[in-house]
Amino acid sequence: MTYTPPGQEPQQPQYSAPQQSGYATPQYSVGQQSYSGYAAPAPKSDRKTFGLWALILGLSGFLLPFFLNSIAAIVLGIVGLMKENSKGMSITGIVTGAINLLIWGPIVWFVIVPGLFLLFALGAAGASTY
């Protein structure tokens, strides 16, 4: 900025037209995307099917000493976390499935399996004495 004496109008700076660069500006047509890269992730479903089944199987595992209920509850809970918006039910299914495995695992493998083994061993021994 320069000093302008009173009574004189300040001069406007002179601007020249911008110089053309060696690069062409991209021309886009209507409907053409102007970006590239990764696609947006698919939105999570509002259904709560996997989370609900994880919760049901996890709670039923407390009553039935089957590992399939607990394992299915854990698997469906993980799938529900990844694909659905049912975090509460999915996490509850995972937790109850894991607790069931911790409770019923030792009982089944250290009490029921040896009991069945002894039952079949004694039954086979008793059948051979005839």
UniProtKB/TrEMBL annotation:
<keyword id="KW-0812">Transmembrane</keyword>
<keyword id="KW-0472">Membrane</keyword>
<keyword id="KW-1133">Transmembrane helix</keyword>
<feature type="transmembrane region" description="Helical">
    <location>
        <begin position="52"/>
        <end position="81"/>
    </location>
</feature>
<protein>
    <recommendedName>
        <fullName>DUF4190 domain-containing protein</fullName>
    </recommendedName>
</protein>
<feature type="transmembrane region" description="Helical">
    <location>
        <begin position="101"/>
        <end position="125"/>
    </location>
</feature>
<feature type="compositionally biased region" description="Low complexity">
    <location>
        <begin position="9"/>
        <end position="20"/>
    </location>
</feature>
<feature type="region of interest" description="Disordered">
    <location>
        <begin position="1"/>
        <end position="28"/>
    </location>
</feature>
